[in-house]
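## Example record

The block below lists the input lines for one assembly entry, exactly as stored, with component labels intact.
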Amino acid sequence: MRPARLVLAALALLATGGCSRVEPWVKPYERENLADPIMSWDRDPISSSYMLHVYESREGARGAAGAAGGGCGCN
Amino acid sequence: MQLIRRIALLVLLPFAAVAGVLPDDRADLMYHYYDGGGVTIDGPSLLVRKKFAEKYAVDASYYVDMVSSASIDVITTASPYKEERTQYGVGFEYLRGKVTYTANFSNSSENDYTADTASLAISQDMFGDLTTVSLYFTRGWDDVTRRGDATFAEKVDRRIYGVDVSQIATKKLIVGLSFETITEEGFLNNPYRQVRFVDPDAALGYSYEPERYPGTRTGNALAIRGRWYLPYRAAIEGDYRFYTDTWDILGHTAEVSYTQPIFDEWTFDVHARFYTQNSAEFYSDLYPRENFQNFLARDKELASMTSMTLGFGLAYEFKPGRLEFLDKAALNFRFDRIHFDYDDFRDLRVTGVPPGSEPLYNFDADVIRLFFSGWF
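Predicted structure tokens for the full assembly:
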């Protein structure tokens, strides 16, 4: 239950934060470099999810892989 | 649980008020190859995704592992074997305003193990699209059986709770933070693996007994990453992950990567990854006697170890002449060399020495990914 509570607490903070208007300090027209495909967290999901599987099958640690994550269903 | 659901709904409502973008239609076909420590695994992998009305997207995946194993565990306590694992996956995404709802399901099966996994995720762009917050929950149901033993049937129940935040920090820097809790309950060890214990009556000076793990495991992982667009057209990324669990494993993972486009069509990637962990609390390479403690493990995944990866990738992007339905295509080749080094897992292929004084085990693995991607 503890992880669920932590997630809910994080959610509550983020949700209430969304009520106040934040002026974006990087304007949409200033995001040319960030929009470049080389700035993607995960350019090729088929490839990154495979490497996750390689590591998770051979190391004790797992999880928190960001956009490439989600668990591999392997032991 | 009912209360938790209601609170979750209330908290999620403000997110539903504000527009993201679904990824492009794309198909990838990959050949993967792993060779290391006496194990060779290769096979195809396919991933196709298609969106509809800019609001809905579906994806489907197919993945095969063809395993040929003569690993150190296998050659010291069993016989080399071949097997195949097949995994199917389907996913659905719905974009409403700035919120993306995702549902995924996958099924993995091999002759002695099946795993069904379902996950739900919600992702929201906020603060002028500078921040993307994702929450996900995954549930897994595994069935474990044992070849040659029709009476053996065990289960594993898995739950994963995750939060992921991606933040645009400057015009050239994006940072990410992820937290994930994984809880597992059921039969968590390998039904074939053995541990060894000192046995003066045995010819080798030791004998084997089946390993025995606790029935539960909870792990927490926290990762932070940053990707920076350099003053010229290239990107560098740094990642760090901290992991800890109820088996007393503590792991650190650090990775750096560099991406360099060359001319218009080529992209070159190079990366290095370092991983270290201490052993599980109940792990031992050699127990002093049979049935020494409640829980027994000699899985090198639970040993004190390090791994070091060096790898590179080369991508060539082009407009296919004959496949006119494709907007663009890319060919990718990636190679990684991983060195695994164990601090308390010994190489039992070496005999004729006192038990516990065999050399420590290490091995190198080569990993190849060759894939074709088409955007349509």
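The longest helix of chain B spans residues 2-12. Residues 19-375 of chain B form a domain with the Porin fold (CATH 2.40.160.40).
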